[in-house]
Each structure stands twice: as C-alpha cells, then as structure tokens.
From TrEMBL:
Matching PROSITE patterns: CYS_MET_METAB_PP
N6-(pyridoxal phosphate)lysine PTM positions: K214
GO BP annotations, alphabetical order: L-cysteine catabolic process to pyruvate; transsulfuration
Keywords from the UniProt entry: Lyase, Pyridoxal phosphate
Molecular functions (GO terms): cysteine-S-conjugate beta-lyase activity; pyridoxal phosphate binding
Cofactor: pyridoxal 5'-phosphate
The UniProt record lists the keyword Lyase: yes
Catalytic activity, reaction form: L,L-cystathionine + H2O = L-homocysteine + pyruvate + NH4(+); an S-substituted L-cysteine + H2O = a thiol + pyruvate + NH4(+)
Annotated EC: 4.4.1.8
Organism in which the protein naturally occurs: Xylophilus rhododendri
Record family assignment: Belongs to the trans-sulfuration enzymes family.
Gene that encodes the chain: metC
Keyword check for Lyase: yes
Enzyme class: lyase
UniProt-recorded name of the protein: Cystathionine beta-lyase
C-alpha cells in the first residue's frame, strides 16, 4: 500500500508496504514460503504468462519471481526512493550484477568508478571482461568531465557516493546529466546513505542499488539486495534478475521489511555517533586523517551538504605510519569495534583496508595503514574508550 506523499518520511516508513485489510487485519505482511502458485484455469495460467512476457510482472507465477511479501518490501523501498518499481535479489552484489548485465552485451563499454565496492570490481574484471564488455575505471572526482571518457559504445555509467573504503564524494547530478544527454544508463550503489539520506533517482540516476543486508536490515542477520528502477529500466532489470536466479529468500525479505520500520530512528543515531567518534579521532596524534563527508573539513563536504540530507555510521581513517605489529596490537583486542565484514547493523565494526590494491585511475598516496569503521548503536563514550585503549596498545608495541 502506498502512503500519501503528504505524510512526512518517518510516517511513511511506519506504514508503507503494509495493507492490513488484505491480510485479515494483520499489521505485518505475512511470510509467504512459496515456489508454486496454483492457477484457477487455463485462461488464468495464460493470463499470467502474458503478464510475464510483457514484463509487467504484476501477477505471481513462481516463487523465484516474488511473493506478496517480496512485493511489500519492493513497494516500500520504491516509495522511499521515489522510483517506479524495485527488484529484490539475494544480496547487494546480485542487485548490482543483474542491473549491469541487463544493459551490457559483448562489444559494449562500461564506465565505472575506480574506488568501488571490491566484489563489483572483481565481477567486472573476471566476468564482464571475459564476455566481451570493455571496462574503464574512472576517477570518482571527475564530475562533468566524464563526458571526455564516453565512447560511442558506452552503455552504462556506474557510480557510488561516497566511495567504498576512501569516501570521496561524487558529483552525481553532473555525471547523470552527461549520461542522460547521451542515452547512457546510470546505476548507483546507494547503500551508504540508505534511502533516507539520498535518493539517486531524484538526481537523475536510473537505478539505485541497496545492499539491504546493511542499513535496511539493521541487524546483521540476513542477505538481500534491492534495485530501485525508473520506468525505463525496470523491465530489463526484472527479467535479468529472474532469468539469472537472483531471488531473495522469504524470511530474509520479511526481516528486511521489519528492519526498515526503524530506519528513521537508527540512521540519525548512527550519524550522531559516527560524527562524535570521527571528531575525536581527528584530535588523536596517531591519526593522519579521517574520511567522513559529514565533517565540515572533509574534501567532499560541500557536495555532501548540497545533495544529501544526512549521513550513515560508516567512515574511514588513515593512521600515521606504524609497524604491522603496532597496527595488529591496536586492532586485535578491541572489545566493541570487533573485526568483521559488512556494516549497517546495530554493532560497531572495524576492518583494516588496503585501498592501494584496488586502484588504477586514482592512485592511493597515503603511507600509513587505513581503517574502515562502522559506528553502531553503542554509547559513543564507550566506543571512544575502546579506541583509546587500542591506541595505548599501539604505542606500547613500538
């Protein structure tokens, strides 16, 4: 059920994708464990086949293509993003791969930012290239200058802002304008911002990707992806996702929809805590720089302030040069910032990062070790004490 646009965002989050009248008054859409749907007649079966062939996908035909639970989540995130329709997949990478392959064929050219999510780079290098797609990595700070990199066979421009691991801000509207003028599809990973802090489609992007595993879920216990499409891109993405087997499990879909209800409360808290910890890190003698666009002195702050309405809890830091022994001593015994991949859950996380190994268009010049931190929902004073003890171990290991 679509909630009125006159409602404020927090009200929409509570009620969108919910239709109690359709489920005997039940507040939450039920979990449908379904592979098979029964057809009432031959005409009904043929009707659903025609629906699928046309690309409408309004009727339910097979579990891989979704259930009423899937549709509820898709409708809710679509409304938050201001899109046409959405496609749920098994993970964020699945949503990205389905979106890319929906518009790329052998002989086509893809422009993709240099500092993107690592597994997507691997997909480009090991799969797209093998099947004849030409891939060019571009400087994320290129802005409207991307027009100079466009080739006659460029079919897709891929964005992510802020960038993975290094948090540069991209001029999304400028790049989208170049693409739209040339009929090029734009796809953006919007997981960092969540639908609350940025809506790519409202800035000219065609497809907005979310790893619902992260902030939409909020609890580090599911795998799911969502591609929110405009009207022109929905059918190709839906057909590609269905034909490739990128389907979300029913329980994960249900938990993502439940997690979405508290997104409006969690994101501001993540931002508040991340800002507190990031500012504290800026004052530490062991830290060379902090990478968080919400900070006023961050190089990307002006773009963030212009286009975004908030920030999440994910940010980066570069330490001053130290030994591997010191670096390990700091990280190995942190109590609250536990080492683990993913982010967006209620808990704080930290991982060492190695941006120099993932760059080709924009070299990484920092000489000290780098970190990616996720500020969870713990008290920021406790998080700061945890890091403070880590720096004490780093100093003692010298």
């Amino acid at each position: 059920m679509k909630t009125p646009d006159s409602f404020k965002r927090d009200t929409q989050i509570v009620h969108m994708g919910s239709d109690p009248d359709a489920y005997n008054g039940i507040v939450n859409p039920p979990v449908y464990h379904a592979s098979t749907f029964i057809f009432k007649s031959v005409e009904h079966l043929l009707e659903t086949r025609r629906d699928r062939a046309s690309g409408a996908f309004e009727q339910f035909t097979y579990g891989r293509e979704g259930t009423p639970t899937t549709r509820a989540l898709e409708d809710a995130v679509t409304q938050l993003e201001g899109g046409f329709r959405a496609v749920v997949t098994s993970c964020g990478l699945g949503a990205i791969c389905a979106s890319l392959t929906a518009f790329l064929s052998a002989g086509d050219h893809l422009l993709i930012l240099d500092s993107l999510y690592g597994p997507v780079r691997q997909f480009c290098d090991e799969f797209l290239s093998k099947f004849g797609v030409q891939v060019t990595y571009y400087d994320p700070l290129v802005g409207a200058g991307i027009a100079e990199l466009v080739q006659p066979n460029t079919k897709v421009i891929y964005l992510e802002s802020p960038c993975s691991l290094t948090f540069e801000m991209m001029d999304v509207p400028a790049i989208a304008a170049v693409a739209r003028a040339r009929g090029i599809v734009t796809i953006m990973d919007n997981t960092w911002a969540s639908p609350l802090c940025f809506q790519p489609l409202k800035h000219g992007v065609d497809i907005s990707i979310h790893a619902a595993t992260k902030y939409i879920s909020g609890h580090s216990d599911l795998m799911l992806g969502i591609a929110v499409c405009n009207e022109e891109t929905f059918i190709p993405v839906k057909k590609t996702a269905s034909g490739s087997g990128y389907c979300g499990g029913p329980d994960d879909v249900y938990m993502a929809l439940r997690g979405l209800r508290t997104l409006g409360l969690r994101i501001p808290r993540h931002q508040e805590t991340a800002t507190t910890v990031a500012r504290w890190l800026q004052g530490r003698p062991e830290v060379a720089r902090v990478m968080y666009p919400a900070l006023p002195d961050d190089p990307g702050h002006a773009l963030w302030k212009r286009d975004f309405t908030g920030a999440s809890g994910l940010f980066g830091a570069v330490l001053k040069p130290c030994s591997e022994k010191q670096f390990a001593a700091m990280l190995d015994h942190l109590e609250l910032f536990r080492m683990g991949y993913s982010w967006g859950g209620y808990e704080s996380l930290v991982v060492p990062t190695y941006p120099a190994t993932l760059r080709s268009a924009r070299p990484w010049t920092d000489t000290g070790p780098a970190l990616r931190l996720h500020a969870g929902l713990e008290d920021p004073d406790d998080l700061i004490r945890d890091l403070e003890r880590g720096f004490a171990r780093l100093a003692a290991a010298a």
